[in-house]
Amino acid sequence: xxxxxxxxxxxxxxxxxxxxxxxxxxxxxxxxxxxxxxxxxxxxxxxxxxxxxxxxxxxxxxxxxxxxxxxxxxxxxxxxxxxxxxxxxxxxxxxxxxxxxxxxxxxxxxxxxxxxxxxxxxxxxxxxxxxxxxxxxxxxxxxxxxxxxxxxxxxxxxxxxxxxxxxxxxxxxxxxxxxxxxxxxxxxxxxxxxxxxxxxxxxxxxxxxxxxxxxxxxxxxxxxxxxxxxxxxxxxxxxxxxxxxxxxxxxxxxxxxxxxxxxxxxxxxxxxxxxxxxxxxxxxxxxxxxxxxxxxxxxxxxxxxxxxxxxxxxxxxxxxxxxxxxxxxxxxxxxxxxxxxxxxxxxxxxxxxxxxxxxxxxxxxxxxxxxxxxxxxxxxxxxxxxxxxxxxxxxxxxxxxxxxxxxxxxxxxxxxxxxxxxxxxxxxxxxxxxxxxxxxxxxxxxxxxxxxxxxxxxxxxxxxxxxxxxxxxxxxxxxxxxxxxxxxxxxxxxxxxxxxxxxxxxxxxxxxxxxxxxxxxxxxxxxxxxxxxxxxxxxxxxxxxxxxxxxxxxxxxxxxxxxxxxxxxxxxxxxxxxxxxxxxxxxxxxxxxxxxxxxxxxxxxxxxxxxxxxxxxxxxxxxxxxxxxxxxxxxxxxxxxxxxxxxxxxxxxxxxxxxxxxxxxxxxxxxxxxxxxxxxxxxxxxxxxxxxxxxxxxxxxxxxxxxxxxxxxxxxxxxxxxxxxxxxxxxxxxxxxxxxxxxxxxxxxxxxxxxxxxxxxxxxxxxxxxxxxxxxxxxxxxxxxxxxxxxxxxxxxxxxxxxxxxxxxxxxxxxxxxxxxxxxxxxxxxxxxxxxxxxxxxxxxxxxxxxxxxxxxxxxxxxxxxxxxxxxxxxxxxxxxxxxxxxxxxxxxxxxxxxxxxxxxxxxxxxxxxxxxxxxxxxxxxxxxxxxxxxxxxxxxxxxxxxxxxxxxxxxxxxxxxxxxxxxxxxxxxxxxxxxxxxxxxxxxxxxxxxxxxxxxxxxxxxxxxxxxxxxxxxxxxxxxxxxxxxxxxxxxxxxxxxxxxxxxxxxxxxxx
Length: 1057
Hints:
Strands 14, 15, 16, 19, 20, 21, 22, 23, 24, 25 and 28 form an eleven-stranded antiparallel beta sheet that branches. The protein has a seven-stranded mixed beta sheet with strand order 1-2-9-8-5-11-10, sandwiched between helices. The protein is α+β, with helices and mostly antiparallel strands and 1057 residues long. The relative contact order is 0.11. The chain is built from 34 helices and 28 strands. It folds into three domains: 49-292 and 607-643, no CATH class; 304-603 and 978-1026, no CATH class; 691-933 and 941-953 and 1045-1052, no CATH class. Mean pLDDT is 83; it is low at 50-56, 649-669, 938-1033 and 1038-1057. The chain is globular. Pfam families: Plavaka.
């Protein structure tokens, strides 16, 4: 303990415990090995390591590089670009991509690589439908069309004459990510890393931090401050904004030209022989399939003007038509106007650059704007990827795939949520206070699926993308009836479609039918979003939120464009989400899935996670100007240490098992569940088990005492009779009883509970197979996560039954006398029991995909078997039930105090609850139906479910009679102007231009739409450090079953795809 509290104060209690368990108590630990140890010397030895083969080749290490930027000056002519004044940008830390590729494929993890891309199918033929055709599936890059095409082309080309016949020719799938990150919460220290991932490795493994599957390629510098001083010293005037933007484009492209060196391009064309980690030599042909980046980064890499007229990186659709997303003409225009890296375009860029350097033309001059570059909003810079790969028929613009995290979660949904808050404020009353209160009362779900919300959600302070995702999943109960009708219905329709689209887009396994559903849902989403803008926005004078006002004031003060002080009063704010490239790109998601894999493959979330590790390494540096080099060394050291650990004979880390303190006997009380402080450790759950409950007997409760203490509680009425009736069916011979059998008094009296004791348990773990054929686990705790779902009987109107678990216990039961099967066996049997309170489906509030509403539940009435007992084998998984806040609370279903309620519910219940069908992807597919990993759909039949058919009916129908399919450009402009004219007039009257902040890469002078209102919105909040788990959860409340996938794969042949 003295060591922890001395020296650095960053040593947490967890790290101290890990030091003791994994090092000091390890049987291989020998303190004599540390005699003479010096950390500085050992780090130097590691940095100077000069092995020439194996996993530690120094060639994949870091080196310092520099690039030369030629400086243009409007009005100054030069012989050519190479004769213009140049500035050398140094301290660029890079690694050879080819050597990184070799190291990755030599790594021991290469044993898990998929060397040959393949098409994946599911067999849909059944005895009832033997002619059903197989349906194609897609999960990863290695079963996508792009990689399959490259593999097939590779097998057709002539082989290298020097290769043996058994040398395999394989594609090395590379995925790249880059983005700048702040290294501290305060100060200006930042790093601009480029990461690489290998698509041959399953995403389920690639995204695990313990796999170390993210490879650092380079740390890109920003434009140095002394460059601007050098420019002013050379030309006598400071560089204008257009020149600075041009230099930023040039810097990034030249860094990539350094990375895509001759060795890499030779391997791209001819392949490179690698002795892979599985002991097989292969000729690997590297292929870059996608570049993961946020919108400004994509524009920088593709050399496009940010938020200009043609703001989309994939097509040249005019931004005034973005609001038509997924209309027929919009989809036709996407195909017609797809960006292509043609020789004509390349010649135009070269010609314009000659004008800039040889003729002194301004980079943003009118002469250039009249060219093809100006018309398609392109910068006068040719992408490094175009320079390297255009000769091989590669289209640079195909690299920039959709990004769900920035485009939807932090884009469309965040913008929509923000405007909903503005609208509620404009509606008056206390709507925002109710919204915050409802979110704060929303229960958690899972261990981290839905976390606890704060008390001021509407302020959106320091929120990560996951926070906005969780807000969307819970939005319908929270927004219900905060606006009057008909606005309430339109908002709820929109929220339902947003959640459905998000759930389908984020599926980790897609089939042809789910991709078709995503296409149709995208079209419907466009309809409801346009309906929201058309029918709601004009009726509310929405203004800036306080946070937006402060951001505007900071931007105006920093720009220096207006000498007058910024107004402190909130400005009118229109709903502009539909006019953004992020919204426009939603129409590209469905078609990209089979081309390059599911959307989660393309999310920038993996890169944002790796930023955390970079920030941790920064803390170890001396924080001076060379921290980039120090971080590079730390990354290299961590890589070597990890490889040494993997190459040791005992590769499995076995943690020393600590002796757990004996739990104290909990006080016997009225409630059936255990308290948080009652310890009941539960060991690791085997993945092939359906459920797992402790066998501990330290918390018994006498049945007679329990009934006496709760005499008069409606929940305990008929408790003993119902319990023994349940036990009757689980004793020998009970399974032969018909479902409608009514026990007789003799049956009940013959069922005996040994010592009349119920042995209470704290938690029930339920394992299940997910929609994408993996094993997952839910933890049911009556105190924290009590709600469960079960399959409904055949013929029921709804596929599932819902209940709240009041208590988990087991009994030792036996027959007094002859059992039902005619034997005289009186040995007690252990029977696990769940005591539950039932929900009924509310028939007055139909839910489902056609109604665009969540299923609504009400408590079962006391005269209709409101309480009962079920076996844990009947539980399908946990249910996400959210209170219907708009419908209030009462004690009508359960008068007075009852042990059946949660401790914080006092003497009332929420009248209704909504089923969170969007809680996670598996939950969504249980309602949508047809999932591969679910043996049968909700109705007990394989194949497409009735719920899915209902969804198709909903999607093919006309959602809004007044939806405009085709609107002429002039008419569309008038429609848009009619929505925003009053807002723009107010802005003009305040002396401010009616347009948003220009991004630092945007084309100054274009009519730009606002990209982001939040100056603080960077990756620090995009996906920051994981918050602590709910303080009410104990270690027995759940575990990560991720490692069980490999065990399940070995046992039954499936798990990780």
